[in-house]
Design goal:
Length: 216
């Protein structure tokens, strides 16, 4: 579990991705996550898992779909997390924190959902440009937090086709310059060999797998 600190009023965030951790229910019940005010999902988790944590913490949930998640639908409870906000290609404001989302991964299996070629991912990122520029005009900055399923290309990814990062995320990071970028998708089992936190310009990039408690 990692803690990030910044010289502002503290906001506790619980971020989760990729793996169901049954122990997390006991941790919530025992008060280990007392004071958490925001829940972020970085993909590839059963929506029932997100909903259970949400109901226990009773805080806002923002999430993005992963490459193993179903295609999103407002009409089907099986294709969304009840009570949460799918932030894929969207920007939202929680208190004074600007949060953007980018779901899915690089394409590695034909005819799959939430998988994109690098070119398709770039087009998806371009659709966020008006929202980011509006934030820049209105708030003086584009984003504070970016959540995604995939990592950026060359950062926390690997050379297998399924786990290559997305160039589109590098583009968003260069333009939006958020303070934090939280992602999933790549599983870091050997923490001593593969760092899960990397600084890229003004942005702290964190691999959330399977969960992290962050003080913002």
């Amino acid at each position: 579990m990692s803690v990030l600190r910044h010289n502002t009023a503290t906001l506790k965030i619980l971020a989760v991705s990729d793996q169901v951790v049954d122990r997390i229910y006991a941790l919530v019940s025992s008060g280990q996550f007392a004071g958490v005010e925001l829940l972020l999902g970085c993909g590839d988790l059963p929506y029932t898992y997100l909903e259970n944590i949400l109901s226990m913490l009773n805080v806002p949930l923002y999430y993005v779909p992963g490459n193993h998640d179903p295609a999103f639908s407002e009409r089907s409870p099986l294709r969304r997390a009840e009570g949460g906000t799918n932030l894929d290609l969207r920007v939202s404001r929680f208190r004074n924190i600007l949060i953007g989302g980018f779901g899915g991964s690089v394409l590695y299996r034909p005819d799959s959902v939430n998988q994109y070629t690098q070119a398709e991912a770039n087009w998806r990122a371009a659709s966020m440009l008006p929202m980011l520029l509006w934030n820049r005009i209105r708030y003086g900055r584009c984003l504070d937090i970016l959540i995604s399923h995939s990592p950026p290309f060359g950062i926390h990814d690997d050379d297998t086709q399924a786990h290559r990062g997305l160039h589109a995320l590098n583009w968003i990071l260069r333009l939006a310059r958020p303070r934090f970028h939280f992602h999933g998708h790549t599983h870091f089992y050997r923490q001593n060999l593969a760092p899960s936190v990397t600084r890229c310009g003004p942005t702290q990039i964190m691999n959330i797998y399977p969960y992290k408690l962050i003080e913002y």
